[in-house]
Amino acid sequence: MMNLATQLDELRSRFESALTEAGDERALEAVRVAYLGRSGEVTTVRRSIGALPPPERPAAGKTINDAVEAMEARLLAAAASLEHRAFEAELAQRIDVTFPSIPAPVGSIHPIRRIIEDVAGYFGRRGFAVVSGPEVEPDYYNFDALNIPSDHPAREGFDSFWLTDTLLLRPHTSPMQIRTMQEHRPPVAILAPGKCYRRDAVDARHLFQFHQVEGLLVAEDIHFGHLKGMLAGMCRELFGPEQQVRFRPSFFPFTEPSAEVDTTCPKCKGRSAECNMCGGSGWIELGGCGMVHPNVLREVGYDPEIYSGWAFGFGAERIALTRYEIDDVRRLVDSDPDFLEQLQ
Ligand code: DAH
Q: How far apart are CA 134 and CA 233, in angstroms?
């Protein structure tokens, strides 16, 4: 009996110093396994009971159970104090609450998107529906229905990416005129912004993928004056209250008469012969426009004796370069956030 008690005392004192040394949860668990685990030291002691004379065994068993109970309690206490120490350490950490926080990156609207939204907003507030359509078009919508038959030289100007003999990436948004008029009876008033593609070599003025905003109004008694008024209003909204528009005679197969539209150079207001924005001309070209050709109206089943209308197609990149005074269109697709976030 004496022997067992001494044995347990010795075991418990080793157990105590192991507990003191255990610096974290894993070390504590290792101590538990070594002493109280299934094949730990206590189990070895328990087995020695078998060697005692039977009458002494129950008392020996109780002595061991008491020791185990005490050791388990010590183990729990050690775990609790470890946890407490970790918490205290955390509290003791010094945090500088005045340190400036790291700003979360906030995106900005891309200038092209901004231009499209501004133009769409202007026309939208005047009753125009904003519509979008496919970027892959059959040649019918892109050419034939727009009064550009297959042998027409104007096709060359729209040199595009052909996917099959009859399907191409649209080089302009004008096919949306046809799609809209085929689906709706007049009056129609739409603004169709979207991506276009042309086989152009990329340089400071050209991208092979760009954006246009297309406008179309067809109703009874529509004339060129309506077009001029709408475009002048649009330019004043986009660039400022002093903007003027001018029209230069031009040719598009789907309009008659046709014109190119310019607006006052917003940078020099037409007052500087050295302006690098307009080259000293005082004007910035926006794109083409005109009165919808009777052949186009007939193609979609509108009677040109009753209905007339105007249309225009402007380059969104061109408007962005002018408004933000950017000298190279490639800047818009470089995806350089430092550059883009300046253009608000
Ligand atoms: N689609 C023409 C182009 O990309 C621009 C254009 C001219 C559109 C006259 C029109 C228009 O709607 O009436 O060059």
A: 29
Q: Output the CA angle 163-167-172, nearest 5 degrees.
A: 100
Residue 1 above 60 pLDDT?
no
Q: Is the CB of 287 under 6 A from ligand 1?
A: yes
**H-only helix segments in the chain:** 2-21, 25-36, 41-48, 57-92, 111-124, 139-142, 154-157, 175-183, 224-239, 294-299, 316-324, 337-340
C-alpha–C-alpha distance, residues 146 and 254, integer Å:
5
Which of 289, 318, 319 has most ligand 1 atoms within 8 Å of CB, for mutation? 289
Strand, coil or helix: what is 83?
helix
Q: Is the pLDDT of residue 282 over 50?
A: yes
CA distance 281 to 271: 9
Q: How large is the average pLDDT for residues 124-132?
A: 97
Q: How far does residue 174's CA lie from ligand 1's centre (Å)?
A: 6
CA of 145 to the centre of ligand 1 (A): 14
pTM equals 0.71
Q: Dihedral sign, CA of 131, 132, 137, 139? A: positive
235 closest CA partner among 327, 343, 123, 141:
123
Peptide bond into 304 cis (omega under 30): no
CB-ligand 1 contact for 148 (6 Å cutoff):
no
How big is the chain, counted in residues?
344
